[in-house]
User: Fold these one by one.
Assistant:
Number 1:
Amino acid sequence: MAIQPAVLAETEPAEPAAGRLWLRALRKPLTLTGVIITLVFVVLAVVGPWIAPYDPSAVSDAATAPPSFAHWLGTTQNGQDILSQMLYGAQASMLVGLGSAVITTILSVLVGVTAGYLGGTSDELLSLLANVFLVLPGLPLTIILAAYLPHSGSLGIILVISLTGWAWGARVLRAQTLSLRKRDFVEAARATGERTSKIILRDILPNQLAVIAAAFLGTVTAAILTQASLAFLGLTDVTQWSWGTILYWAQADSALLTGSWWWFVPAGLAIALIGTALSLVNFGIDEFINPRLRQAGVGTKKAQRAQVSRTRTKRVKRAASRRSGPRQPRPVGTPFTADSTDVILEVRNLKVNYGAVTAVDDVSFTLRRGEVLGIAGESGSGKSTLAYAITRLHKPPAEIPQGEIRYTNADGSIVDVLAMDDEQLRAFRWEELSIVFQSAMHALNPIMRVGEQIEDALVAHRPGSTAPERAARVVELLGIVGIPADRANSYPHELSGGMRQRAMIAVGLALDPEIIVMDEPTTALDVVIQRQIIDKIMELKDRLGFSVVFITHDLSLLIEMSDTIAVMYGGKIVELAAAEDFHQRPQHPYSRGLLESFPTLSGPKRELSGIPGSPPDLRRLPSGCAFRPRCPVAFDACAEHEPELYQIGSSQAACLLYSSDHAVKIGETA
Amino acid sequence: MTAPVLEAVDVTKHFPVRGLIRRGGSRVVHAVDNVSLKLYAGRITALVGESGSGKSTLARLLAQLYPVTSGEIRLHGETVQATRGKAFREHVSKVQLILQDPFASFNPVASIASTLRRAVSIHHEDKRGPEQLAVIDDLLTQTNLVPPRQFTEKFPHELSGGQLQRVSIARALAASPDVFLADEPVSSLDVSIRLGILNLLRRLTEERDVAMLYVTHDIASARYFASDTAVMYAGEIVETGPSETVTQQAAHPYTQLLISSAPDPSRTDAKRVKDIGQPPSLISPPSGCRFHPRCPFALARCKQETPPTFQLADGHTARCWLYADNPEPAAPERADAQ
């Protein structure tokens, strides 16, 4: 193995320094509005007593006067200035809100994080404590406690709210800590030799900030509301001004009956306004804390757009109508040969965009009846996006601005998959084409028995079938993939990884599809299990005669099982060849590099050269050929021209070496 | 050969099974059973096995992230029992673990610089400010992340998997350890960049004369990358030896199954070991040889007796009754005759 210097330096615009990033959060108008309103209230609360024009309790002649120049917000029945009451009241309300939130948050963080991180006995004791506080009836307790502490002022109310409120937050934080504690980066910090206290402070807490902040802001609103309710009910010192006290007096003096709206509206509005403002801040906070979300430009508006942007004319006859007639039997047992022209799926110039990023660029290929087409590629090569696009399962913001996907029915009629409406698409998926995903654990519903999930597909697509028919089919399908029939009643977690993956294949086979798209179906499995599954797939393919699109990064596996291989790089197919030709004579420099990256088990040890550098970032593709920065044979023209697929013998490769202008073939020189 | 740097001697790790009802006393998962392994300076030892074979647990026992149930971990010949506190930090400054998934092993809200600065401040306590930065630059340069300043201000999600794995190697390097425990360091990376990471690990092993444990499920990579290979199955080491011998003349039927299952288009012979079962339960592992329910060559005694370690050739061992001088135990009638 030669030691390759890694080409890792990337040229990209420098990111703004972390310190300035919070400014970006403020650029969102909603968050900014929330922050400004909150700040105004805080400032008013601080300076309120100094700028209040009157003593809030001072009685004057102007009884129940509507707003005027002398009294901007009018007066009470006793002629007290409501603006002054509001300003004094802001101080009491904000103090209760912020004070309770601070104490509540400190209590819940201390208890929750300690319990979650330490575990064991301390966890059990602290959780018990939290649970006891959680079942205490909050409002009645608050009322009773407040009634006993009427003259302790705001401090008493803060204590009451904090004591009854901390347990919920502690529970949430404990659960979060438990899951964070198992994460690799915490284990990595431990393995580095970090102290527990530092791990909690620097690894656990920063990742919980969003939750802590949300709980904090929520508590502020709740505390202001609770204080207002208590005061309104007369359970606090009614001579101490707060927004609740204003409402209490307004109610006591029948402001509603006399129509003195200016008496109660400002206090109500203030409470509503601060609650709204805090919610707005809350929305922005996650974006501010999570560095991943800080990157602006992950457009959600685009998500509303249609998946297929071009409106298509319905030039093909309805696919659904064919379903009403009897199913055309498939010509079983015709083995695939390399010169077959029986095309079942044809993809032409397909393009898939994620916003401004093109993930699949001008991809064309054909799949023939009974063929196994292997699509190889690294992360970001667009291979999974292609799989989703073929089945139109791609989710916004992905969209298909260009291309055709033509499917040939058993009777010879051709339909355009991209022109199908929802109804046709539902019939097409699973009946004509099914998908087996990478993670069987996630793709299977954990709370449904495996047999029921297979039956579900039958119920949805064969509405006429009877229950015994379906049950028989489920047993048959499980038998096909090699799962004992009695496992039909198992839940997914009761099956091993290999069994689950086979169950997924059984779901994929349920409706006798013509094409099965498999997206890394064995990547998470061990080699021994992978071998069982692959052998099973190949056996089923020969027996049932379907075609397979098999997507994986494992080129060795692909060469073993495929008839044809397509190699993707940077969203394009860079080589398309029969598997045997590809193995013997890879044409594209990237294919050669890939083949030379795999350690082999049989035969003598050979030199592994690998490929320098990293797979490309689709957001910043290099000019010309995307592989150019990593290519050992790149020349000047590679930076200017995007190579198309050139024919070399029976293979096709997208490399300028094979364009007519560059007659030199590396296959001959090597 | 010189003395091993880090050594596991008859190490066993059982995890208690948690359940609402504890039936028949405490049930345990036999994650690692009676495993001995030696790591030498300047050498890479591969530990190969499928998921659940206990290979990652063994690596974590060597790192002292868990306490052993029985047996000993020896560093430079001295027994260590240090799963917490100062002694633990002492141990990990000599033995560093590199985890599989580079995307998960970084705090997502901390920049690369701040993650590395923490490691540096633990292991270079005397360094401050600009000196710390110089150490960080040096670590990144050693792992081929050049120029270093282009990486320090980034957040984990802004780097590729290969780059992040280099950063995690840099983080482990901060301790200047004597032993690296690399737990599947490349299996979550793209094929084309695996080789670069493996070459980097090999260069560090040779240049710094450290011992390296390379935990992997990919036995082909063990052949190219490690001088010695140990194969684990169901918590036990079933075969050890020089990597070339283990992969080319595999002795244990499990190793043979592993090799014949691995995809390899250049294989010419279609001979394939037939697999007849599923990985065993580790809560109640099979009696005798743990591989016997899946083994095409299983003998009667494999069900009853646990095979000892047989020496096959220089440094090549296998735990399989096929290599006993007398594979079938003495038949009853012969016993009678004697």
Number 2:
Amino acid sequence: MRAHVARRAQPWLGTIVSIDVRVGNDGRHAERAFARAFAALERVHNAMSLQCVGSDVARFNAAGRGERVVCDRWTVNVLRLAQRLQRASDGLFDVALGTACGAAFDIVDDRSVRKLGGRIDLGGIAKGYAVDRAVLVLRASGVDQGLVNAGGDLRAFGAGAWPIEVRSGRGHLRAQMALERGAVATSQYCNGRSPHRDDTLIAPATGAAHAIDNTITVAAPRCVLADALTKVVALSSNPHHPLLRELGGQAWLQ
Amino acid sequence: MRIEVLPIVLGALPASVWAVDYVSASEAEALMFPQADEFATVNLRLDNAQLQEVGKRAGLPARSAQWGVRVARRASSPLGYVVVDNVIGKFELITYAVAVGTDGAIRQIEILSYRESHGGEVRLPAWRKQFVGKTVAGPLRVGDDIANISGATLSCTHVTDGVRRIVAVLQVAHEAGALP
């Protein structure tokens, strides 16, 4: 049976998500896998997008203090992980906005959280989680080799390496990498080069703005971890942050 | 997990464009309306009042008065429409298809083709041969931002805008009786 790479791309989570899979001759098999993987991306988009009307995040942000917010099970998964990462990184990673030092939520059960205050933004973790979900679905659909790329937060699965290029803020090639069975995410923060608001990263614990002039690349076994760890490395300016080792990650500043 | 950092190969080759083709327009319409047994093209030509109405509903300029719409049917009754369109991503064109039901609801959006330009430096490609994704026209790019708006993010915004315009075009044409 001749294998080939089949690919699809759709816009989700504010970016273009592409899926490449190595498949045999049964095209219908690949179509079912694609459909299920994009359905997983849609579910994450609908639950966790800040802009998506009626998303769990939008309803949480609109809720009053002390209110219980019913969420998709996947959102609770992400919030649980966010809580662990927040503690393990001493607040460097935090999905809460405007709570200064306090937590924004408590987990009630697998389907709901209680709002303690402030707002949340899952932008630093949801894309990575969505990529991991899509990979799980593809594998469960019988695909054994592939790659899911959500605008640069990506994960390869199965045997075989994939070529990755890291580009600077101006599009210059900064690094080339070969990735097999793992995830990569990048972040970059240009130091005062542009008035764009997002050029600075706000440290959640202190509210201090950090201007960082580097491309940060993090590789980790899961995309959600690579995604979250880029923030930890960016805010600590430390590519050897102990949390990397703990979570099986590796970082490069370029 | 295995990750290896490779030496960068710099060359003086000129900037070039590569494209990733995902699906063809006809494959896309079959994917988006699998139950259809017929597709036929309707060429819309909007008049000035209709163009203004499109601009008002979409919140963006209508851009073009002429639109080719593929009408999907099953046993002669219309299921919906497919429109193929191009938008500029960061620098290059993106071709995408949107499927809309006869109720005006978006059913699916598929990227057909995604083009990007290389910078001046070109990696020479012996090393790429070892990869699974070697048939990909260009390597996977990460971190390619301008002021933190990556090519993919900007492309997504432009596709989303394009989709909104197409939905408005279809609504206006449908109300005028130009579409079944």
